[in-house]
Specification:
The complex is a heterotrimer of chains A (about 475), B (about 140) and C (about 525). By secondary structure, chain A is an all-alpha fold. Chain A has one domain (about 5-475). Chain A has helices at about 5-25, 30-55, 70-95, 100-120, 125-140, 150-180, 185-190, 200-215, 225-230, 235-260, 265-285, 290-310, 315-340, 360, 365-375, 385-395, 400-425, 440-465, 465-475, and strands at about 60, 65. In chain A, helix 1 (about 5-25) packs antiparallel against helix 4 (about 100-120), helix 9 (about 225-230) packs across helix 12 and helix 12 packs parallel to helix 16 (about 385-395). Chain B is an all-alpha fold and about 140 residues long. Chain B has one domain (about 25-130): Methane Monooxygenase Hydroxylase, Chain G, domain 1, CATH 1.20.58. Chain B has helices at about 10-15, 20, 25-45, 75-100, 100-130. In chain B, about 0% of the residues are buried. Chain C contains 22 helices and two strands. Chain C has about 525 residues and is mainly α. Chain C is globular. Chain C has a domain at about 295-523. The longest helix of chain C has about 35 residues, at about 185-215. In chain C, strand 1 (about 85-95) and strand 2 (about 100-105) form a beta hairpin. Chain C has a two-stranded antiparallel ribbon. Classes of the chains: A mainly alpha (about 475), B mainly alpha (about 140), C mainly alpha (about 525). Chain B: It is found in: Cell membrane; Membrane. Chain B: This is NADH-quinone oxidoreductase subunit A. Chain B: NDH-1 is composed of 14 different subunits. Subunits NuoA, H, J, K, L, M, N constitute the membrane sector of the complex. Chain B: Its EC number is 7.1.1.-.
Chain lengths: ~475, ~140, ~525
Amino acid sequence: MNELQFQALLPFIVLAAASILVILSIAFGRSHTFIQVAGFGMMCLVVLAMWLVRDALPREIAPLLVVDGLGALFTGLIIFSVLVIGLLSFIYFEEREENPKEYYILLFLATLGSAVLTISRHFISLFIGLELLSVSLYALIAYLRTRNNAVEAGMKYLMLAALSSAFLLFGMALIYLETGSMEFTGIARGLPSSGTPILFIMGMGFLLVAIGFKLALAPFHLWAADVYQGAPSPVTVFIATVSKTGVFAVLLRFAQAVHLQQYPAAMTIVVVISVASMIVGNLLALQQQNIKRLLAYSSIAHFGYLLVAFLPGDAAGAEAGFFYLLAYSITLLSAFGVITLLSTRQEDAGDLSGYRGLFWRDPVMGAVLAVALLSLAGIPLTAGFLGKFLVLGAGIGRQLWVPVIVLVLTSVIGLYFYLRVISTLFEKMPPAPARARPLHPFFYYATYAVLILLMGLSFWLGTFPRPAIREIEALLNIRLL
Amino acid sequence: MDIILLQANTLTTGANQNSSFSYFPIGVQLLFALGFVGLVLGVTHLLGPKRKTAEKLQNFESGIEGVGNARHPMAIKYFLVAILFVLFDVEVIFFYPYAVNFRGLGWNGFVEVLLFVGFFLAGFIYIIKKGALTWED
Amino acid sequence: MILVWIIGLLLCGGILCWLTDTWKAGYAKWIALASVVADGLIISALLVHFVTGTGPQAVSPYPAPQVTTPSAEPHAASPHAATPWLIDYRNTWIPSFGISLRLSMDGLSLILLSLTIFLGLLAVLSSWKEISERTGFFYFNLLWTLAGIAGVFLATDLFLFYFFWEVMLVPMYLLILIWGDSNRRYAAYKFFLFTQAGGLLMLLAILALYFIHGRQSGTYTFDYFAILQSTLSPTAARWIMLGFLAAFAVKLPVVPLHNWLPDAHSEAPTAGSIVLAGLLLKTGAYGIIRFVLPFFPQASTAIAPWAMLAGVISIVYGALLAFAQTDLKRLIAYTSVSHMGFVLLGIFAMQETAMQGVVIQLIAHGISTGALFAIAGMIKERLHTRELARMGGLQTSMPAMGNLAMVFAMASLGLPLFGNFIAEFLILLGAFPQYATLVVIASTALVFSALYCLRMMMRVFFGPAAPPTITPPTASAQQDIDSREWIILGLLCVGIVLLGLYPQPVMDLAKETIQQLTLNFRI
């Protein structure tokens, strides 16, 4: 490994080192605050390392990894999300029954897994990354193990993730059988230049099943609502943003490498999954009374939208897809930030009735949540609107009328339940008893500030997306052929 | 750095052949295996004499009589020790391929293995400090 | 740049209202008033500038034609007519997608912008006492709605247009949701879902146009003037036009899609009703005039008879339903459906006289309906009801309000002396040569309008008073209008009469735009 390769891999190495650091500091009996601060310091180091990565792009670490613009971009998004999640975690776990320290080991490992996914160019690294991510998530989801919902959620995720891993391996095996290679570029080379490679398409089908599980796309979405509801709020948002970002990145890279768009059969599968997700997600969200479940179903729909950006397989699609994920991550982080702050020691603030009149009780939190929901609904001024706009543009540019029209119609349905929550926020109600003084004022107000920052970011991306888009375009163009 | 992957490249030549035919031997073997198993099970079932006694339906415990229910709660310590044993056992297994390639991998390989051991050492320290291996409460 | 200021003032004023309210209640309304008045000053300066001499109107080579005589006009316009655009502002926004921050104003925009600020001012004034809680947030929403509407009237970048189109929705939704009447939640949902569904279809159409234009010319842009140059295949034009029409027909509203309107209008607070009826509906008409007709001349000619039929159905259906209402605000809401039917009829007549009528109808309807909603709001403040059955005989206790209401009712039913008369007359006149049957049907509907207006006056102000068991005579219920309400209604009254007596400046302002537009349809 030469120096530039090392430089390119530095963020990932620091992430791995961070988990070791946390293990050792738990072993030597440091406090939660110490671990939180040390973890934050390590994350800052990762961010610094990301800065160095810029100069080393693109870099191949044969045969498993490639750190190029796409990988750096998605890794950056992952690290940004984890920074916020780390902050949310402190308040959340400090007040819970379970010892919070081991949580951070798992968090770093899961982050590493997701980050490895974004830079993998080989089935082996894909699988390692995915397993690192899933295995950590099993434990993270069931972390509050005395709660019934948490254990149920953990078990469900365990069973389905194991099943999906099996599908993934079988799909990989089939593709290997057809092409004789596990490298993405090698697979592309091994594919016959004419005719339909049946084994490859079958393998791709299995692969899509596994990826569909991870992204909670219909019809593989059955775990989503229960897991979202049962998991601790910071973990829920981790599943919703970080884990899905990594999986989507690797899907994108793989599809680009093998030119998946050439195979109508495979694309039909994707279209069907996308349309089904949009319809199922939005329809099932209509009747939800629990905001975490509601966001689970809405995330199913949102990844259906995201697949519309994936379908064209061109630069505009990738750009739209990334921007959409960025907007979606910011939005979900702020929404779950509010949920985390509102959660009590006994249970997460899931029930919608608890949000009645939030805007009047706590204008900042109410505004943050309202803006997040508007962004999810795709209303202008927010990042979500521009994301949806780019996705629609990418779809229409390739004349994908069916998914595009389904997208538009289902987002009107989606609007209904977002409005339902928003109108709950604005409902009049007698003033609730004042909340107890926050236990940890510093972290409480830091979280508060971050939420406001996220809201500002959403507005900024929604109104002046120019610098962001320019950066995304530039980075996506840095790639190895 | 060379990461040695257990990746065969024999099939790169095989892929060019008529693929449906090249699976034929596998299919024959599969059929044969299934047929053999089915045959043996069926034949022994038909031919063998059947005498059912209470003793024959009991678990075979090397002549010792079974006592009580097997599914009663056990102390978590057993599981912990067992799973930790498996974990560190697997670590040792990884040394075998390294030992075989010791010269070939050179100093680079040595550093990598050292890192590997270091990670496990950190885990080991964690386990000890957590008290996972202290038998007496 | 001045156009940016107009919108920016409203946006900043809104934020300021919200912020100041958190530490000092009572300032918000003054800030709101100040920012609307400041905007009003800018606009009146512009109006004075462009109406009296110094603007392009004066240098325009064409003498003011006799607009009411259609035979004179084919010579009035030539393909080389001066550009109707008065002010153009342009800045980059997201250049990689060809999105720019382009605001342009022509006569039509200026007219509608003045209406926006005028009604905005009255909306602020009429909620002076009505809104007692969360005033800061209320004025924030009100001003942002106004800003969105102003932006819609000015944007000449399709993306920007859609942006403003949506920006006005959310604050309006909140206005209904938070400060509305008992059934506000349902009304707010309905309003938002209807308009958003239409809006998203329009977004699809905009994107399709963007790509078609990009493929043709090689430059991908959302610029209105650039897209105007592209040619469409008939099929594409038809579908894309339907996308645009979906949004505008919901807003206008055209009859099968009018469902949201009565609920939203009747549940909204007074200011909300004024803005909804006076301004929001106008954005639909404006959209058709600005986008649908110039972009798709052939396709819209093809659909014109159907659109006019829908217009006539709206006129008759709205009038009939207005007659049957027992709720004062719902009654007024249905009159809007009827009046906007005239707008649709006039637009798709594609004829200069009718189009002039449409422009005047937009203003006249804005003023008269706005005034009626203001009066309904004042009555509701006093009696706490919208039910016609619980009113009656109010003329004795509040004669001034009764007289003013009479004025606006007469305006609404289209009596001469008022703007509505001029407008409806011009529309019917313009449409008559081609579509005589439809015009005859529409004219009969004028009889209905007299019926519902007079019924409303009779039930509310004349006729027997409601028995005291139903409406207990309290002190507040006896009060006649105070000076603030005098200002509101007086301004509206002056406006509608002026428009009825001397509509020429409005016609002059809109003339260039209309001529440019109708040029496309001369065969």
